[in-house]
Specification:
By secondary structure, this protein is an all-alpha fold. The protein has helices spanning 3-6, 11-16, 26-40, 47-55, 60-83, 89-95. It is built from six helices and no strands. The longest helix is centred in the last third of the chain and has 24 residues, at 60-83.
């Protein structure tokens, strides 16, 4: 799936706006919430979370992909932090803006 084809043309404005979650449908908000939970409190993730996502229409492949991407980014960030990897100069300004 090409996510760029699925994204609205004004995605940048939506994400940088006052309430980026307002543009998301309930399924998208729940997927985002689950990614945050997986990042900040992975030990609290449980089957009920997955069932909730399914109830909102998320498919098992969508849930799987979400978990894989979130886990990979968390892993890479922890490795980079642990090894003291410096950001590339062109990325330093962007890191502080999120």
């Amino acid at each position: 799936m090409d996510l760029r084809a699925e994204a609205p043309d004004d995605l940048g404005e939506i994400l940088c706006g006052p309430d980026p979650r307002a543009a998301l449908d309930p399924k998208q908000r729940a997927l985002l919430d689950y990614a945050v939970k997986l990042t900040k409190a992975p030990a609290t993730c449980e089957e009920a979370d997955v069932q909730h996502l399914r109830a909102l229409g998320a498919t098992d492949p969508e849930i799987h992909n979400l978990v894989q991407v979130a886990a990979y980014f968390n892993y890479i960030n922890r490795v980079a932090d642990a090894l003291g990897v410096d950001l590339e100069p062109e990325m330093e300004g962007e890191a502080g803006s999120s």
